[in-house]
Structures are given as structure tokens and as C-alpha cells.
Amino acid sequence: MVFSIDMTKKAQNKKSVVAVPPSYESQVSTPSVKGSFPWRWILGGLFVLFLVLVAVNKGWVVAAVVDGQPIFSWQLNATLRTRYGQQTLEGMIGETLIQKEARKTGVEVSAEDIAVKQKEILSSLGTEVSLEDFLKFQGLSESDFNQQLIIQLTVERLLTKNLVITDGDIDNYIATSGATLTATEPAQLREEAKRAIISNQVSEQLQPWFMELRQKSKVMKFL
Q: What would the pLDDT profile of 11-41 be if each residue is shown by its tens digit?
């Protein structure tokens, strides 16, 4: 019995031993700053690029400097908007309406038409004036000048598409208004008279035609 009790006690002692697992330190990985998106470098690069662009084209920020005092471009733009904004906007609206009407009626102006009109204007000055000198005097670029010619020719064709000019009309104009013509050759004189008749037709119809065109259109202005 003693033996059995001892064996029982030993068995009980063995059961009371609890195995404790070894402790490990928790390793929580923190995000590395090294791998984060380099926003600072990107913003810094953009700022440097902005400074370079400003240095190349100072007019983006400063329009002029008067005795060390800058006139900023935003001040110039605000003044232009206040003084000439409405007038400029009305001109742009008018051009848009004319171009829309031209597309609707199939009126087109070619590069050859523009070249002919350029030559006509330069020859009307009466002296040998180059296109470059004319543009410099007018303060225009060639693209701006050509755009004006396109609008002018478009209006002429829209207003004279049903106009028929006969030889009798040309003879009558030469007889009554020949003093205003400058050509001396008969063919050139008749051509100049024809252009004058067209010009008079456009001048008479332009304002009422455009007013009607404007009234029929839907224009919203926010300036």
C-alpha cells in the first residue's frame, strides 16, 4: 500500500507541473520613412520649375517696373478687364455669331482669298508698303490680321450672296462716282467700281443684319 501511495503521489506531482511556453518580444514593424512617397521633392521641383519659368518670362508676374515699383500682371489684367472687357467680349461674341452663320450657310474663306485681300489693302495705300511694315505700324501679328480679314470677307459674302452686279451697274457707278476711284486702266477701273458697289452694299446692310442675328441668338454674359 505504501508503494502504491508513493506512486500515486509521484503521478500527482507530475500532473501539477505546467509547461510554460517561452516568452518572445513582440516585433511590430513600423513603416519606414524611407519608402514614403517623396512629396517634398516633387513640390520642391515644381517650385524650382516655376521660378525658372518666371525668370524666362517675367511678364507672367510683372508687367513693368517704374522706378523700382512693380506693376504686376494681375493688375494689368484687372485694368484691361474693367476698361475694355465689355468691348472686347462683344467683339468676340460677334465673331462667334458670324462664324456660326457662315457654317450654317456654307460660306468659306480660303487662303487664296486672304492673300488677294492682303494685296488689295496694301495696294490701296498708294505706296510700296510691305506686309511686315504694315503689321508693325498697325501693331498686329499676321495671324490676328488674317483673322480680321476672314471675318471681313465672311461678312461680305454673307451680305452679298444674292447680290447681282451688272455691267450697267458698274457703268452707272463710274459715271456718278468715278471721281472717288483711283484706277486708270479701264479693266482695273471697272474692278474697283465693282468692289465699291459691294462695299456700299455691305455698309448699308451690316448693322440691321447683325442686330437681327444677335436678337435671334441666345447669349449669356458673365462679365
A: 444 444 444 555 544 444 455 545 566 777 7
CA distance 116 to 114: 5
Q: Confirm if 153 and 98 have CB atoms less than 8 A apart.
A: no
pTM of the prediction? 0.67
Please report, for residues 21, 78, 82, 86, 105, the alpha-carbon distance to residue 63 in angstroms, rounded to integers and kept in the order given: 78, 12, 17, 22, 43
Any alpha helices (H) in the chain, and if so which ranges? 2-15, 39-56, 73-105, 111-124, 131-138, 142-159, 167-177, 186-216
- Domain ranges in the chain? 86-216
What φ, ψ does residue 70 adopt, rounded to 5°? -80, 145
- Nearest Cα neighbor of 217 from 95, 131, 112, 123 is 95
The long-range contacts involving 8-11, CB below 8 angstroms and separated by at least 24 positions, are none
The C-alpha atoms of residue 180 and residue 199 are separated, in whole angstroms, by 13
